[in-house]
TrEMBL record:
SUPFAM superfamilies: GroES-like (SSF50129)
Record's protein name: NADPH2:quinone reductase
Species of provenance: Kribbella sancticallisti
Region feature Disordered, mapped onto this chain: 56-79
Length: 114
């Protein structure tokens, strides 16, 4: 799958092929629909985030994201938000997410860019 990969600390993410996430027991697979870069992502890719960062190369993206579940739970195809924190991994088509870091999106959420 395509992913924004940080090749080394201090380098900008690059679009690369990356092995798709396989969910472990207790995880669900999320198809990412929206993600944005924020200061935490920039500090992680610089290697200066105070809580640390994954060892490069890694798939960038750690803050709140929107997507749809690809496996149960939550309901298959259900819209969710999730938080990866310093684990990164959300700047890819698919992300395996622990069961305690996702939330159902409100019905009023359109997931449209304005």
């Amino acid at each position: 799958m395509d992913a924004a990969v940080v090749p080394a600390y201090g380098q900008a993410p690059e679009l690369r092929e990356w092995a798709a996430s396989e969910p472990a027991p207790g995880q669900t697979l999320i198809r990412n629909l929206a993600a944005a870069v924020n200061p935490v992502d920039l500090e992680m890719s610089a290697g200066t985030f105070y809580f640390g960062a994954p060892e490069p190369p890694y798939v960038a993206g750690g803050r709140r994201r929107q997507g749809t579940s690809q496996r149960r739970p939550p309901p298959l195809g259900g819209r969710v938000w999730y938080e990866r924190g310093r684990l990164g991994g959300s700047f890819a088509h698919l992300t395996a997410v622990d069961g305690d870091i996702w939330w159902r999106s409100p019905a009023s959420s359109t997931m449209r860019w304005r």
